[in-house]
Write a structure and sequence with these properties.
Layout: E1 9-15, E2 20-26, E3 32-36, E4 39-43, E5 48-50, H1 52-63, E6 67-72, E7 81-82, H2 84-91, E8 94-98, H3 101-111, E9 127-129, E10 134-137, E11 140-146, E12 155-159, E13 162-164, H4 186-196, E14 204-206, E15 221-223, H5 224-230, H6 240-252, H7 260-267
Parallel strand pairs: 3-6, 6-8, 8-9, 13-14
Antiparallel strand pairs: 1-2, 2-3, 4-5, 4-7, 10-11, 11-12, 12-13, 14-15
Length: 291
């Protein structure tokens, strides 16, 4: 395919609190761009949101006179609040996510005991993608593939010669994402990763997170070939059954992400807060013993 030879311009933004890497992806032949997985910082102790990371993305787009076409959520994040709606309100763009967002909304609509005013049809987003759906960033063609396992709605985005894997994969020395959230599945993530690693060996892979294991410097870009050879959880020598046994045992030992309860409640709304109460204050629910 000729499309794989096109290299979009990729600009990363790192949020140290959640170890999240957000990206601006620009069509090299125009000013069109997309933003992938932007972050709003949330202080749990004070209940305050901070937009410094999102504002840096906005500033970059405006300074370089780019046109924001898409705000892409690779999945519903459990470790940070999405800044997609915040950015859209200020400089435009359309929100997109995988169509299985409706599954996540149904599950967590029950967790938070949401009433009928909370829609579970994905309508908070502008476009819901099916497996292999295509879209464009300017003249740059992109394709989304469904890669469930971490969550039911995880999508990997193939944009030119770059692939944005969300939480499905980490850098080779960190392995793969957890699968113990509602709707997660170790067998599914194994098959999803194998699908990603069936792409050409030189394909560039961009991570959504890097936790800098063993104190190494931040890394967020690797290749299919490097993952096939070196990923500590899912390389060419590891069978599906071996992976599932390892992944499920590892997941049982992991702590719940510290921001999971506020993040999911906001992110199932595309990064918008619940409606304010009669005193014009917005409240988030903290379900007890929900996980």
């Amino acid at each position: 395919m000729n499309q794989k030879l096109i290299s979009p311009q990729v600009t990363p933004f790192f949020d140290a609190d959640s170890h999240t890497i957000s990206y601006i992806v620009q069509d090299p032949s125009s000013s069109a761009c997309a933003v992938i997985d932007p972050v709003l910082e949330f202080n749990y102790s004070s209940g305050t949101l901070n937009s410094s990371g999102a504002d840096a993305i906005i500033e970059h787009i405006q300074t370089h006179e780019l046109e924001l076409e898409w705000l892409i959520e690779t999945h519903i994040h459990a470790d940070h609040v999405s800044a997609s709606s915040y950015i859209k309100e200020r400089i435009g763009g359309r929100l997109l996510i995988g169509e299985a967002i409706t599954v996540v909304q149904r599950v967590f609509g029950e967790v938070y005991n949401e009433d009928q005013n909370f829609k579970r049809d994905g309508s908070q987003f502008d476009l819901l993608l099916k497996d292999n759906d295509e879209y464009s960033i300017g003249n740059l063609k992109a394709r989304a593939i469904h890669t469930p396992g971490h969550t039911p709605a995880c999508m990997t985005h193939i944009i030119g010669d770059c692939v944005f894997v969300g939480d499905t994969l980490f850098m080779p020395d960190a392995g793969t994402a957890r699968t113990d959230f509602p709707g997660g599945c170790a067998q599914q993530i194994y098959r999803s990763v194998k699908r990603i690693l069936s792409l050409p060996q030189s394909t560039r892979l961009f991570m959504c997170h890097d936790y800098c294991p063993n104190g190494r410097a931040l890394k967020f870009e690797t290749t299919v070939e490097e993952q096939r050879q070196l990923n500590i959880h899912i390389n060419e020598t590891i069978s599906e059954s071996e992976f599932v046994t390892m992944r499920e045992a590892r997941d049982r030992a992991l702590d719940v992400p510290k921001l999971i309860l506020p993040s999911l409640q906001i992110n199932i709304r595309a990064g918008c807060l619940p409606a304010s109460s009669s005193n014009n204050t917005t409240y988030l629910k903290i379900p007890i013993n929900a996980f």
